[in-house]
Design a protein that fits this description.
- The complex is a heterodimer of chains A (598) and B (162).
- Helices cover 39% and strands 15% of the residues of chain A.
- Chain A is an alpha/beta fold and 598 residues long.
- In chain A, strand 6, helix 8 and strand 7 form a beta-alpha-beta unit.
- Chain A is globular and about 75 Å long.
- Chain B has 2 domains: 75 residues, Alpha-Beta Plaits, CATH 3.30.70.260; 43 residues, Alpha-Beta Plaits (2-Layer Sandwich), CATH 3.30.70.
- Chain B contains 5 helices and 6 strands; from the N terminus they run E-H-E-E-H-E-H-E-E-H-H.
- The chains are: A alpha/beta (598), B alpha+beta (162).
- Chains A and B meet through loops of A and helix 1 and helix 2 of B.
Amino acid sequence: MLDGTKLNQKEQPVDVTGAQALVRSLEEQGVEVVFGLPGGTILPTYDPLRSSSLRHILVRHEQGAGHAAEGYYWATGRPGVCMATSGPGATNLVTALADAYMDSVPMVAITGQVGRPLIGTDAFQEADITGITLPITKHNELVTDPERIPDAIAEAFHIATTGRPGPVLIDVPKDVQQATIPWKPAGPISLPGYRIPGPPSRSAITAAARLLHGARRPVLYVGGGVIKSNASAELLRLAELAQAPVVTTLMARGAFPDAHPLALGMPGMHGMYPAVAALQEADLIIALGARFDDRVTGNLQYFAPHAQIVHADIDPAEIGKIRRPDVAILGDLKPTMTGLAEALNAEVSATGTQPDAAAWRATLDSWKQQFPLRYSQEEGGPLKPQYVVERLSALTGGNAVVVAGVGQHQMHATQHYSFTQPRSWINSGGAGTMGFAVPAAMGAQVGRPGELVVAIDGDGCFQMTAQELATCAIEGLPIKVLIFNNGVLGMIRQWQELFYDERYSHSELGQAIPDYVKLAEAYGCYGLRCDSADRVDETLEKALAATDVPAVVDFRVHDREGVFPMVAAGQSNDSIILGPEFTADEQAAARRRDMETR
Amino acid sequence: MTTHTLSVLVENKPGVLAHVAGLFSRRAFNISSLAVGPTADASVSRITIVLDGDSTPVGQVMSQLDKLVRVLKVVEVKAEAGSRSQLLEVAQVFGASVVDMSPTTLVLEAVSSPGKLDALLAMLDTYGTCEIVRTGRIAIGRGAGAITDDAPAAADDEWTAA
């Protein structure tokens, strides 16, 4: 009898609701936090959520939940999870999903849907969210069978986190959440149409290493894939072994330490001159988890005209999408770079010669000297945003997690902060989503409690998602928000100045409304203001010292400051504009680039 | 215009056609035709796509299609001249007649039971089927009696009847 009972317990599964199965499936995936906001059709799931081990962060707008999940991923490397109800709750996630898709961020969104009998009837708060998000998710599924919930969730995490990562949305009708089913944990993943590249090809790696060994002007063009692959150590080893300079794209800032002698900084539209010019003059570009984005290449016709291309990526569709590679390496970057280093060593042993990089290094070093980032902070003059970033970088030793919105402040932040480690720079790159910073910083702080998380935001961006300050204050997330308040949509203003004859059409916001100090205080945060360079340090120190509630600083910065260098959209990288701090002679020299080494 | 024909096997699940079609509009790929047909396996459908090869990078289309989770396999269909005689042999065995022929394609017409047609399609699969049009089962009773004999007249003259 005893045996029989035991057998019975084993064989008879416990009955659970679909909602319980959903929450339990999330727990089994090791999820620790869900960012969300309840509503009618997701209510069944919120009930068991209350008694589960999952931490739930109640956001003030679903978009905030999405960006928080993204920030959480960037800061921790673990997939972010967000939850919303059907209809407007789900559509409010759309911007964050599009953002995550563009930047290959692994995240799982769970949405409630109207009950199965109501689907297609224009029911209250019904939206075809799987239809809406088809082109902006790596995958999505409307779960119509409650017994599929555990498998659907397991598959969602598998798809989101493997291969080229991306967002996955699971839409669960209310009656599916309410149904009673026997609990059965997810079975083995069965996705016949989903393939992940295997280990990188040895022959491709050998061919690439041979090119690298023979190159006279190589550049490692490092993209966000290196961060995703947690391959910074492998990158450092490869760069030092090859003595090859490194450019880190906007998505890869922090993948390679900025203070390293081989670091050239960021390439692209607002890249540092040595990084932009190095790609233009290179005879070999090794693209590592980068996708030849138009913001990096400028006019493609004139991009890197002398370079052979090695393209290493985990996504086969990226290879040859924009620029045809001479050698393609398909697979994870970690083993790719380990393999490249080994193959390069073998090449050195076989030929008895080290890669010859001395002349190239000398050229690059002279560019660093001649054409650095330049701005002027005059004493008693208007406060410059670059100065604030430089002081933040110095005061934090480059060790803060820096989160940015989109615009001038984002470019100033990534240019002037000296990054020391991966996962310390979080921003919206591909989609360019204004309003990203505050909620993403919130997610990052959840993932890395006790660490310094600093959002650098523009006044335009800040007002799009500022309400998450309430969430931060209540949840005890002491993020710092530095608003670079210039009273204008700065990047828009800069383009209007340069390309629209200074006709400032609808780009002025006004510096005084809202009063950001009062707004901060209304949200239960510290509010500070600073409008002069000599008070930047003490203001930053005060803000950084706050550990109980968030701190918000209204930095009143100069509204006419531009972001330079700049390559105008659609132009060749060779027509780079150094900016007003350089003389005409310097500008001409920068474009001429007397290349002794070519 | 050079055309390329892709044969795409997909899981027969809701939304998969929308996903494939959406990919083409989202990535601005030009297609000249798209046809969906069944395969011998009810859980798998075949989508046949004819692409404008001048304006659309075929390799990129195939890579992007292959990334969709519900897409099982993508192949480019190229009818080789050498396979024509083999195809004609298959057609003969199944009693199918050839109604059109071009340098790279054959159009066959076959009338038979579902089981026999499935077997024919399975054979043709190996050569790459561009397109299938298939009716459901159609039937007619033997002998003189016809279904129309004592069927009520259709109410197409409601106005006068009233």
